Amino acid sequence: MEIEKMPLEEKYERLLYQMTLVWAEAYDFNKKQGTTDKWINYMTDVEKKLLPYTTGLGRVFFKFIKKIAPGKTFKQTVNKVLYDQQKWHHHSNLELSWISNREAIWKVKNCPFLRK
Questions:
Q1: Positive/negative CA dihedral, 62, 65, 71, 77
Q2: Is the pLDDT of residue 66 over 70?
Q3: Distance separating alpha carbons of residues 26 and 21, to the nearest angstrom
Q4: What is the pTM of this model?
Q5: Within a 10 A sphere around the Cβ of 73, how many other Cβ atoms?
Q6: What percent of the chain has pLDDT over 90?
Q7: Nearest 5°: CA angle at 9, between 8 and 14?
Q8: For all residues of the chain together, what is the average pLDDT?
Q9: C-alpha span between 25 and 35 (Å, rounded)
Q10: For residue 107, what is the enclosing H or E element?
């Protein structure tokens, strides 16, 4: 018996659903344990450490460019992070507000992680 090949779009849809479920479970578990703030702080620390890699820049180059042009590096980083977030959230659900060249606020409307 031959195994049916899954279409690429269905693979992405199933992967997104699985990751959404994992994040929802982690959020719910931490909420019930009263450790939501610790979990968010932990995830933020991990993301900061991975930032040079997730933005497509090498760690050494990232540190170098950050010293030369910190405002520009920050803006590029925020834009890369929000671009990357589109794998989880639809583009129209992402909001970005610039407070200064070194401070930004981004929000996710209709977050599937919190809805499920």
A1: negative
A2: no
A3: 9
A4: 0.48
A5: 19
A6: 7
A7: 100
A8: 78
A9: 13
A10: strand 103-108
Residue with tokens 């890699």, as numbered in its chain: 53
Distance, CA of 55 to CA of 77 (rounded, Å) = 6
What token pair was written down for 84? 């990357």
Query: Can you read off the two tokens belonging to residue 82?
Result: 């929000």
> Position of tokens 């090498």?
58
Residue found under tokens 């009263």: 34
Residue type, 50: L
Question: 63 in helix, strand or coil?
Answer: helix
CA dist 77 and 81 (Å) reads 6
Q: Phi and psi of 87, rounded to 5°?
A: -75, -20
- Return all residues near 18 (Cβ < 8 A) that are at least 6 apart: none
